[in-house]
């Protein structure tokens, strides 16, 4: 039975009277034996952060004086190829383009679209190289303040269902689902997903988060355009868009994998509590969310299963760096493997993603981090292995979820709805 409307919630938000809980705060109440009532909660905020390959940017980039070239045939931003168009911008000296978060630099195999998007949003200077349809090359630099349009579109973000991956074979496998080439057999698990905090885990049939809903995408206020590609009722995901000029570079970036650089984003969504059943959907606990363990070769063969309790309960958000243990090795394997470039000779905590590769890789325990382990049965044999790579960042997800809660409490984020 409906106990309030969106309009009533928005009136409370505008007056600063709305009661807002994060999905983890709801889960904690449930774990402690409480049974929250819809009468007492107006909004639940949810969030996720992880590799989201379906991320692209639509940009309008100044290149040269008007009339300098007719049309762009090819364009590189920091060495990363984009797709000029669809508008030809004939004789304008500027280029409309689409560029993928999964694209790779032609000059630097460790640099890709995710790193570029972070650089753009962070206001860094971007090198532009254009080949015109007449074959002339134009080089310039630009930055976000000169880029006319910078709109991010996510074609399939914030999935509800993830798989985890292991390698059951002797061969080494390159994949976007692990930070490095994955060794086997059963040396470790690579996981994704923010469990009980994940937006669609708290709204599995998209009653509250659907076309037209406002969201935060990398801290910029955007909207859900619709269901993402390959979205289904069983495995939903979201198509989103937001203005990159309002994004916070902390929440997005590049993440190197065994198959080259990828892109990560952070998404937060609000669930208006209009009735008890909507609130009860947010009672989900990590230990109750199944995470299939899948063969990284081909990704569809399910070998067993674990749950998000094993992934996130009791695990560390971030590694601890012990510089006294560092032997200054000639080649630092941590530096080579750190997917976000957070470790050079010092640890940049702002760039760190909490993936765990440093603690897994350093032979001298210069990094430590509790990232959990799993056990499951394969062919009647019990297999145990550590979680060696997390491709989702629970810390950033928590931060953005809390930021959305603050915005609603302060009357800065008014809800809209797809179902009223
Ligand atoms: S591998 Fe470990 S001990 Fe060696 S330089 Fe890197 S952090 Fe230091
Ligand atoms: S957890 Fe370690 S390897 Fe992963 S991003 Fe942070 S410093 Fe780099």
Automatic annotation (TrEMBL):
Q: Where is the 4Fe-4S ferredoxin-type domain?
A: 317-342, 343-372
* Any one GO molecular-function label of the UniProt entry: oxidoreductase activity
Q: Mind telling me which residue stretches traverse the membrane in this protein?
A: none
UniProt cross-references to PROSITE patterns, sorted A to Z:
4FE4S_FER_1, 4FE4S_FER_2
Q: What is this protein called?
A: Methanogenesis marker 16 metalloprotein
Organism for this UniProt entry: Methanobacterium spitsbergense
